[in-house]
Amino acid sequence: MMNSEAHQKVEAAHLSRNAFLYVRQSTLRQVRENVESSQRQYGLRDRALALGWPLEQIVVIDCDQGQSGGSAVERERFQKLVTEVSMNRAGIVMGLEVSRLARNSSDWHRLLEICALTDTLLLDEDGLYNPSHFNDRLLLGLKGTMSEAELHVLKARLRGGILNKVRRGEYRCPLPTGFVYDEAGNVVLDPDAQIRETIAYFFETFSRVGSASQMVKVFRNEGLLCPSRLRVGDTIVFRPLTAWTATRMLNNPRYAGAYAYGRRQYRRAPDGKKQIQRKREWGDWLACIPNAHPGYISWERFQENLKILESNGRAYELRVRPRRGKGRRYCKDALSAVGAEGTSVSDMPRDEAGRKPGMSVIVGTLHVAS
After folding, report:
1. Domain range annotation of the chain
2. H-helix segments, 227-298
3. What is the CATH number of domain 179-318?
4. Residue 67's closest CA among 82, 53, 77, 54?
């Protein structure tokens, strides 16, 4: 039974607006198996009825099931709830505990601020709160901090278990095209002969031409397609080879039979999505175990390929990145160099078209014939 203090916080202005019940569990597995938790969350409707809200004014929001409370980005119904509160349509917001509404301090305190501005009450299993009251606001803030800390501890435990497996090379990662897991969980070459032969020819071609772009031209001229594994469904499709795909395959140590983990460092973008912050150097990878499984090339060949790619990248950078503001001086120096042994450019003879022999100028680049 609700105590008298809780009833004193509920005013006619609150009862004139809707009561919103937010129901959420983090994973679909929890939704299927934690039936008692779902019943407890839906049971908060009785608390709203006891406080004076009619049944038709109780709005249940349960479309964010299976979504983590760590961010509001993917929880559209939570964002809708915040909108309803900000438009002064909510008299009370209910959740079994703080973690059901948000496990992120910024999302939680934003909701508290809006509730305080619109005089909206908050209710959980422990009691009823008015965020515009200092003591209630302080208690709710502490609960939000504890909820976020709890999520951090849970993630740290899971992360620790994963890293232990990673160091032993036992953590199963998504495999690149050309590899599969066998029944025992070991990494083996793809049983499809066409896939194996195409990837083997891919690395053989690079050893011959020494350039990702040239390799793309070879595949195109020979009418070859490169196998690619789709992220959804684990289906293999054959597509025209691109320079991006070629570079990605050449940089993947899995093709050298090495188990690798932590090659990139990720961070959360403002929209909550995971983005690559930077690529780690080879010595900074969380795990690198050569000869962990069969590969298409040797570890030594893999390292040689990386050196070739790096050399190609430096040459390309020097070729296409002129120094800003210096183009006219460089062009003048190059033209002056043509008139060697004291012969100036103006003194050089012209052909029938009026051009200097041994020179051809293309926009952005000066070519001097030998």
Report:
1. 4-154, 179-318, 327-368
2. 243-250
3. 3.90.1750
4. 77
Going from the C-alpha of 289 to that of each of 50, 167, 168, 285, the distances in angstroms are 62, 9, 9, 10
Query: pLDDT-derived band of residue 311, with 50, 70 and 90 as boundaries?
Result: confident
Cα–Cα distance, 258 to 179 (Å, whole number): 12
Tell me the chain's radius of gyration from C-alpha atoms. 32
For 4-154, CATH gives 3.40.50.1390
Q: Which residue in the block uniquely carries the two structure tokens 């395959």? A: 249
Residue carrying the six token digits 């691109």: 242
Asked whether the predicted pLDDT for residue 263 surpasses 80, the reply is yes
Our answer to whether residue 26 is catalytic in this structure is: yes
Reduced to 3 states (helix: H, G, I; strand: E, B; else coil), residue 259 is strand
d(CA 303, CA 76): 46
Catalytic residue (one of 4, 16, 26, 105):
26
3-state class (DSSP) for residue 133: coil
**In angstroms, rounded to a whole number, what is the distance separating the alpha carbons of residues 344 and 333?**
12
pLDDT one-digit tens code per residue, 201-252: 999 999 999 899 999 999 999 999 999 988 776 789 999 999 999 999 999 9
Per-residue pLDDT tens digits for 87-105: 999 999 998 887 778 878 8
Give Dmax over CA atoms of the chain in angstroms: 106
3-class state of residue 312 by DSSP: helix
Please state the pTM of the whole predicted model: 0.59
Confidence band for 338, pLDDT divided at 50, 70 and 90? very low
Do the beta carbons of residue 121 and residue 129 sit within 8 Å?
yes
**Assigned token pair, 70:** 């760590």
